[in-house]
């Protein structure tokens, strides 16, 4: 499993993954549920060598996680190519079936036409508004203008970590 070091790193990893399934694992070192789940996630990563497993340390990337609307841990997001985000869910050692079902559903080889989408426009804007990525990373800026007010409003919102 690869550790994500910055928002730009995450944006880049999602884009260069091409058509491969990418699984984002949001965790924190102090989260017991994450620790309990970790060995199983590692096993599943070994069993799915064609998928890319990426870890995001919530404690080190709080602003980014907030911008991506991650509020509970452990938390997972699946992405593939032009389809962008496929699913998003929390899961524990007891509910690992959720994760296995998601892999079974999305892990089979298939081809999504077009370039990888990665994060969506409003997520990229939220990251850029916090200075975590360069505005140049956002394609099609005119299309994005309408999200701006929405994103700026959102940055004042409190967030809680369960
Ligand atoms: C995780 O769940 C399994 C049962 O599925 C159990 O045997 C194991 O002890 C649990 N592990 C932890 C760390 O809670
Ligand atoms: C982008 O992702 C966010 C979650 O981070 C979601 O709430 C939002 O609806 C998505 N926006 C678009 C335009 O798909």
TrEMBL record:
Sequence similarity: Belongs to the thioredoxin family.
Full protein name: Thioredoxin-like 1-2, chloroplastic
Entry keyword Membrane: no
Alphabetized UniProt keyword annotations: Redox-active center
CDD domains xref list: TRX_family
Any one Gene Ontology cellular component term annotated for this protein: chloroplast
The keyword Translocase belongs to this UniProt entry's keyword annotation: no
Domain Thioredoxin stretches: 1-108
Family annotation (InterPro entries): Thioredoxin-like_sf, Thioredoxin_domain
GO biological process, one term: cell redox homeostasis
PANTHER family: THIOREDOXIN, MITOCHONDRIAL, THIOREDOXIN-LIKE 1-2, CHLOROPLASTIC
